[in-house]
Amino acid sequence: MLTREELALVLRTAVSDVLGTDIDDVREQTSLLADFGIDSLELMEIGARLERALALRVEIEDLTGAHNVGQAIDLLHQRVGGRV
Question: Which of 2, 28, 30, 82 could make a disulfide contact with 70, Cβ separation 3.0–4.6 Å?
Answer without folding.
Answer: 28
